[in-house]
Amino acid sequence: MAGPLSAVRIVEVGEMVSAPYAAKLMADLGAEVVKVERPGTGDRARTRGPFPGGVAHPEKSGLFIYLNTNKRGVTIDLASPRGLSIFEKLISGADVLIHNLTASEMDRAGFQFERFHRVNPKLVMTSVAPYGLSGPRRDWRAEDLTLWSDGGACYLNGARDRPELPPLKAYGYQAGYQGGAHAAAATMGALFAAARGAGGQHVEVSVQESVAAIIEMANTSWPYMGLVLTRYGPKPVQPLDSFECRDGWIFACCVEEHQWQSFVEVMGNPAWASEELFNERFKRGVNYDGFRPMLAEWIGKQTVQDLYHKVQARRVPFAPISSLADLVNSDHLRARGFFVDVSHPQAGTFKYPGAPYKLSRTPWEIRRPAPALGQHNQEILGGELGMSEREIESLRRDTVT
Amino acid sequence: MNQPPPLTGIRVADFTWVWAGPYCTMQLAHMGADVIRVESETRLCVSRVTPPWAGGQYGVNRSGYFNQYNQGKRSITLNLKHPRGREAALRLAAKCDVVINNFAAGVMDRLGLGYHDLVRARPDIIGVSLTGYGDSGPLRDYVAYGPAQVPLSGMSALTGYRGWPPMHVGFSYGDPNAGTHAAFAIIAALYHRERTGEGQYIDMSQWECTMALIGEGILDYTMNGHQPERDGSRDPSMAPHGLFRCRDMAETVAGRPVDMWIAIAAADDAEFARLAAAIERPGLASDERFSTLAARKRNEDELEALVTEWTSARFAGEAAEALQRAGVAAAVCATSRDLAEDPHLASRGFFVELEHPEIGRVKHAGIPWRMSETPCAVRSPAPLLGQHTDEVLTEVVGYGAAEVAELRAQGALK
Q1: CA B371, CA B377: separation in Å to the nearest integer?
Q2: Cβ within 8 Å, pair B3-A193
Q3: Residue A150 CA to chain centroid, in angstroms?
Q4: pLDDT of the residue at A243
Q5: Bridge-partner residues for B352, per DSSP?
Q6: The overall pTM is greater than 0.80
Q7: CA A162 to CA A169: how far, in whole Å?
Q8: What residues does B38 pair with on adjacent strands?
Q9: Is residue B363 within 8 Å of residue B353, measured between CB atoms?
Q10: Is the confidence at residue A399, as pLDDT, over 80?
Q11: What span, in angstroms and rounded, lies between the C-alpha atoms of A215 and A217?
């Protein structure tokens, strides 16, 4: 069985996370993706760890090899006119171009939808830009941290009771992943429209907006109530909090009343739980500091797995705070075949996170590891674009490829 | 000339609730799908009974949580405990291209609305189950909410201040993330159906979807047996890289000051030199404590203190503007107020203010993408509970008005 996108051809010009993750989501469902990198250094993700043995190497970056599975790679200098004309040949047969050049980089390189649309009228071009392609901040310098902050996510996190400490970003490159996931959904929509005869078009995705769209109650707290949501003070629903058990950490989670009542039974119906201050959902939010110590004391005497299974048997959605070892050794994830072994010729063979969804007829699949820098220059420029050995050699000499 | 949005003509029966499923189906509604949320008066969606409330006043149609994440959908109420409610649900599903639920594994089967029942009603249907743990494996009956996905996925163990316990990320991140991934997978399945006529079943686990966001961290473990140390907001490849204190917001809110912070990241030595000049300490760029990344990482506490001296005397917005003028990646650590009043987002038309029958015109976040030929738009505000029950049952499902009255009298539409 082939993936649902096995007839889709994609050219990606992606750095770091956002556009590469979008193209990976499509590649892992069968799309043929050609990734275009800068000659010499390639995608900046190649400089980011983790690396096997902690030794940096451009072909062994854990970030790069994770985000670029199922892609072939070519090197083209898009800043040179010859490079851009080769690039136009490459996109002339593509269904999708997805990139994350910034607005100002696009201006400098002449990297414009109108131009590519003349070359290929059926092309869906997706531009994933930090702040989108318009507005006062379109040319702002951005990194993942600044976008997670400017999208309103970062302010919500941090120590509850230590105002001297700064807000805390989430691990990794979450703004990039969200920009990428939203870009994949929007690109897929445009491809579906194209399949129904809409032709090519330009899809623009803002990473800031992709974060600003998902911040839960913080989207409406100001317009609805004039509230600034902070990491301090009471939350509307509690407990949604981490606790230390005898042998590790557990996340206590009671959203609905019946979940709290079941948990109270598991605790053996302590007298404090029926007190006026704590006996209703919203009161538990307001008065959380009043009963948190009692919870901490009781949970502190339990073991993680025992408490987790005991409350889940009553349909209370606690979760252990998993270490990476817990994930890789999980019987549940093993039974679902989540982790997949991928052999990369230089980095080695490791388990990678697998399918985020299981499609019954058109499965997710890893068909090849991430490409080495320029690995498929000959195959694609010569074999598929029909350039001669001499042309390719001359491009290489002039560092166009 | 503009063409209709991409999913025009696609109908979705949405049996999901809380946030993950609703975030998914909102993406489909943004793209033009007719999304019909199947709700119940007897078991209200958690988001309808969760704040913020419009004007501070509780009401099932007044929650900003629900109204933000259900824009552009219709709502009907069906009592799935009643046989005729279930029958109406199955008849509705047969008129839909996509049927999605986020009940625990097995619940839809017991209601007679499982994928096999749906396929009998409509062979090319796309059935989607979006559960916490997926619909197979030893923990398939376990339940999860978005906030619990952050710790369960390994993200909490990687997030936190140095030397501190694992921490959360501050919101129910597992939900919208699963929703976006689900929307992508559903449109991919629709694309496959468009080309082959085949429907299919999609099994999604929020847990697995959340692990996709920490892939490089997981590889550190599978490559090296290494659990990365939590390191606040720092980055091994950049320094400074963090949140720095600014002056409190100029006004108090509810009588209290609001602390403000700025995010700053210097990607390389050149950017650090620009930062040093912008904070009026140009000498730092050639100071041997800070002139290279390795030196800045060694002396990062000291470096952060120097940056804080400059930021803490300024408002966050002014500081971000000044650093950006100097070519430094910086941004306000935006509060919910900053976001709602963000002139950049406003100039891009990100916000949506449609007339809602109960709360009027209030600002909501809109669509994070633009399409040049098939423009997407939020076409209607979030629905009132059961607002479209009659029209959907008559116009979509094909009941007569008298039958609808009968169903209502029998308690099948509660």
Answers
A1: 10
A2: yes
A3: 17
A4: 96
A5: B364
A6: yes
A7: 16
A8: B76
A9: yes
A10: no
A11: 6
**What is the SS3 assignment for A215?**
coil
Say if residues B222 and A328 touch (Cβ distance below 8 Å). Answer: yes
The C-alpha atoms of residue A6 and residue A316 are separated, in whole angstroms, by: 41
The one-letter amino acid at A217: M
- The answer to whether the Cβ–Cβ distance between B159 and A158 falls below 8 Å is no
Residues of chain B found within 8 Å of residue A151, distances taken between Cβ atoms: 334, 339
Q: With a cut of 90, say whether residue A132 has pLDDT above it.
A: yes
pLDDT digits (tens, 9 = 90+) for B283-322: 999 999 999 999 999 999 999 999 999 999 999 999 999 9
Q: Could you count the other beta carbons within 10 Å of the beta carbon of residue A384? A: 15
Q: Phi, psi at residue A293, to the nearest 5°?
A: -60, -35
Pair B11, B31: CB distance under 8 Å? no
Judge if the upstream peptide bond of residue B52 is cis by omega within 30 degrees of 0: yes
Report pLDDT digits (tens) over A241-290: 999 999 999 999 998 889 999 999 999 999 999 888 888 888 898 899 98
pLDDT band at A130 (very low <50, low <70, confident <90, very high): very high
For A49, the token pair is: 């760890």
Instruction: State the number of CA atoms in the 13 A half-sphere of B169 facing the CB.
Output: 36
> What is the per-residue DSSP string for A223-257?
HHH-----SSS--SS--EEEEE-SSSEEEEE--SH
- Dump the DSSP string for A69-119: TTEEEEE--TTSHHHHHHHHHHHHT-SEEEE---HHHHHHHT--HHHHHHH
Mean pLDDT of A222-246: 92
Return the SS3 of B351: strand
3-state secondary structure of B353: coil
**Cα four-point dihedral sign B279, B282, B286, B292:** positive
d(CA B241, CA B297): 10
Q: Which two tokens stand for residue A53?
A: 């043995």
8 Å CB contact between A75 and A400? no
Of B171, B254, B369, nearest to A186 by CB-CB distance is B369
What share of chain A has pLDDT > 90, as a percent? 85
Q: In what order do the strands lie in the sheet with A9-13?
A: A71-75, A32-37, A9-13, A96-99, A124-129, A201-206, B369-371
Collect the ranges in chain B with pLDDT lower than 50.
Answer: none
Lookup result for tokens 């306000």: B332
Identify the burial level of A340 via C-beta atoms within 10 angstroms of its C-beta, where 0-12 means exposed, 13-18 middle and 19 or more buried: middle
> Which chain A residues are within 8 Å of B348, Cβ to Cβ?
132, 134-135, 206, 209
Q: pLDDT value at position A396?
A: 84
Q: Please tell me the number of Cα atoms within 13 Å of B101 on its side-chain side.
A: 20
For A176, B353, B367, the CA distances from A132, given in Å and listed in that order, are 13, 21, 12
Mean predicted confidence (pLDDT) in A78-94: 93
Cβ(A337)–Cβ(A365) below 8 Å: no
- Annotation says B203 is catalytic: no
Between chains, do A327 and B154 touch, taking CB under 8 Å as contact?
Answer: yes
pLDDT at A389: 86
Instruction: Identify the closest residue of chain B to A352 by CA–CA distance.
Output: B219
Q: Residue B151 and residue A192: Cβ atoms within 8 Å? A: no
* The predicted structure's pLDDT at residue A397: 82
> Which two structure tokens, joined as six digits, stand for B282?
């140009």
Q: How far apart are CA A311 and CA B64, in angstroms?
A: 31
Q: What is the DSSP string of B63-77?
A: BHHHHHHTTT-EEEE
Alpha-carbon span B321 to B330, nearest angstrom: 8
Residues of A in contact with B190 (CB under 8 A): 192
